[in-house]
Amino acid sequence: MPYQQIKFYQAGSFVVGNRLLDPERRTVQADGERSNTLTSGHRACQGCGEALGARYALDAAMRATAGKLIATNATGCLEVFSTPYPESSWQLPWIHSLFGNAPAVATGVAAALKAKGRTDVRVVGQGGDGGTVDIGFGCLSGMFERNDDVLFICYDNEAYMNTGVQRSGATPPAARTSTTQPVGDEPGNVFGQGKSAPLIAMAHEIPYVATATVADLRDIEHKVQHAMELRGARYVHILVTCPLGWGCASADSIKVARLAMETGLFPVFEAERGEVTSVLKIRRRAPVEEYLKLQRRYAHLFGKEPRSEVIARLQERADRNIRRFGLVDEDTVEEPGGVSAQESESVGSAVDEESNATRLLEERH
Amino acid sequence: MDTPFAITLQVGSSLANKTGSWRTERPLYVQRMPPCNDACPAGENIQQWLYRAEEGDYEGAWRQLMDDNPFPAIMGRVCYHPCESACNRGRLDEVVGINSVERFLGDEAIRCGWTIPADAQPSGKRVLVVGAGPSGLSAAYQLRRRGHDVVVRDAGPRAGGMMRFGIPRYRLPRDVLDAEIRRILDMGVELELDHQVQDVLAEQREGGFDAVFLAIGAHIGKRAYIPAGSASRILDAVALLRGMEGEETPRLGRRVVIYGGGNTAMDAARTARRLGAEEAIVVYRRTRERMPAHDIEVEEALEEGILMRWLSTIKQVDDGAVLVERMELDETGFPQPTGEVEELEADSLVLALGQEVDLSLLDGVPGIEVDDGVVQVAPNMMTGRPGIFAGGDMVPAERTVTVGIGHGKKAALHIDAWLAGRSFTAAPKRDLVTFDMLTPWYYSDAPKTVRPTLAAVRRQSTFDEVVGGLDESNALFEARRCMSCGNCFACDNCYGVCPDNAVIKLDPTGAYQYEIDLDYCKGCGICAEECPCGAIAMEAETI
């Protein structure tokens, strides 16, 4: 295929399916026969990003393993809303034990499979940010350092939502939770606390670490697929919106996650053996206000007396991420209405367009 | 019950839990009005024919287009494409090159010889169309498709009206014009040329016509009183352009001044250049912003080296020169004379001051109402005389080919209904899709394929077409840039983004490609918010 300089996505290349694409170039989610690992009837809130993220990731893992997959689950929203006894929304073998030991249970399942000679069956551990970043962190680190053959997925909604929105180690600064009230000089969660689980995971030099958001399905599917092609300890950290805890409209669930990415507040990258191998570039850079304003957990920054100095500190964090991970490419970021002359000159060939879109998707990774 | 130790219940599926009961709003698939369709004077369903073209189904696209407009190849060349000015994609990167895709489809149809059958049940009704211009031919085509016998009479020697005698061939090659007219005549439309209708009622009576559609256009150049010397050469633009279709091309000399600021003035100036004038100067009394000519025409004229003198009027014409007075805009934006006069060398002066309608054929017809030189018509295009309809340049409207074609179609629909003793009511207008109803993140940059333009130098010396066409792959590329505003393009986004798997893919599809599973839909609204093209609405549940 001739290489084309032109950057272009036809309508549809960021969408789930598109009738103009070959079926194998559409996402797993576009497939009418997708696994629906987390099926209808679950009790997640309207617009739950975690329910969506879990189905995105596990459906992709199911396809990657031809359905030979076992999931272990930490305590948390995901576990509670999917399995009120005796109902289950899970359409794959699934086990829940404790809040803090999902990675260790996953290790055990993998060990049992190995002992039985069933290494064709793969193991995914999953939990929220509470179960992963805080309570299960010892087990997770142990799983990493032993390089156990487990993919652990954290669905990060930045607080303990199930128990009433308490702060976790993944709660961002300035965010209001029930334990970080918007009062005093530093309203909301304080700056300078908390941790980045993906960066700590990288420090274990495990085969694969990636971050993603529920706003970019193709990116999630690519990363889960790639993770399942590897053996050993792997970690995927997916930002998922919580309309209830963040105080956003349920309809804006994906939009808010997209803004987390497009502002730079949540850097999306992948790393192998401790080194960043690719980042998802920001296509349309947005100021942090656009992201913050949609969420009531940041409402105290606006109102009658806007806390512009706090907003500026958050913008600084975003800018730092952009610098640190190289999230903005001067030639790839789109200015509204502006197209560089070089691009206008090159004429795309529609014949190659599907492959072109795919190539660009590949280029992103 | 056989259950493991300490287990008293079998595992059940959450499918038993019908979360649809939580809902206060439900998503609804809708079809909204894309801005291109809304802006099209011919009422084309542009989004729909682009949708077909995107799949490479060019014939299907062409047939969809032909429903509303029998001249795609002509339109693709001469239409001022208000659709593109309205296109939402312009807010993202650049507008979709709708006009060039239309032209590609039109050319493809001529190349492949696609035709439109006239196989409707004969109605037994006869309709006389006066004028074989865009409006008359459009009406004839639409009436013929609906089973009526149609006779078109035109005073000129060839069909096409202003498309032939007003639009220079560098903008519209005559083989294209002839091919698209031929296709209409092949459907059984009768054409009588060199037949000036003098008395419309007599012709209606004698020919046994049940209805008449008048579309005689406006082809008398307006004159202005300008004191002129005996040797000065003054002609009007309409006559100049018409003369280009005759045996002998008009003589203009080396320096030509064109008076007026409309599209006809631009055509006349560009034609003058092609006839060998070294200098063609357009003199217009207002500013460029107020010129009635379309911007692209002015641009192309300037590119070809046409000179413009804005804020100027012509005071006097002498042998070899015109006297020009500089104007100033007053507070109301009206030009006022300043008294500053300047002389321009000119071998001839072309007046392009607008055109008037020759209404003599309506003399003595009772009920016809004429105001400001044009015939007044009701919303159904009927004049004050029952059974006589009118459209195109002879009724009050913007005078473009596309508007004329739209009038022809509209009149035909009303004539068809009127002949059957019914009245035609258009479908209610759907909600217009604005840019903020889209989720543009899902579309990405794809600059408009720039049509290859011939070098300006080459343009000046020949009558070759000025704007080149797209080839097949470019046309496909361009069609696929359509964002399908307000109309589902089967992208599966709603199916993918529902956290509750409450979107069902239909197979086979009905009016829509998907359906909401109301048993489980919680009404979160993500599908509506994330629909790239704004084809899902949220509607409150009645509780």
What does this structure look like?
The complex is a heterodimer of chains A (365) and B (543). In chain A, a hairpin with a 2-residue loop joins strand 8 and strand 9. In chain A, helix 3 packs parallel to helix 5 (137-145). Helices cover 35% and strands 12% of the residues of chain A. Chain A is an alpha/beta fold and 365 residues long. Chain A has a single domain, classed as Thiamin diphosphate (ThDP)-binding fold, Pyr/PP domains (Rossmann fold). With 543 residues, chain B is of the alpha/beta class. Chain B has four domains: 14-31 and 488-540, Alpha-Beta Plaits (2-Layer Sandwich), CATH 3.30.70.20; 35-115 and 444-479, Alpha-helical ferredoxin (Fumarate Reductase Iron-sulfur Protein, Chain B, domain 2, Orthogonal Bundle), CATH 1.10.1060; 126-220 and 356-419, FAD/NAD(P)-binding domain, CATH 3.50.50; 224-354, 3-Layer(bba) Sandwich (FAD/NAD(P)-binding domain), CATH 3.50.50.60. Chain B has a five-stranded parallel sheet, with helices on both faces. Chain B starts with 11 loop residues before the first strand and ends with a strand. Classes of the chains: A alpha/beta (365), B alpha/beta (543). At the A-B interface, helix 1, strand 2, helix 9 and helix 12 of A face strand 1, helix 16, helix 17 and helix 18 of B. Strand 2 (87-88) of chain A pairs parallel with strand 1 of chain B.
Strand percentage of chain B = 15-25%
The CATH class assignment of chain A is: Alpha Beta
Uncertain residue segments of chain B: 447-458
Kindly state the number of beta strands of chain B: 22
State the domain count of chain A. 1
Cα distance spanning the termini of chain B: 41 Å
Q: Count up the helices of chain B.
A: 18
Strand content of chain A: 5-15%
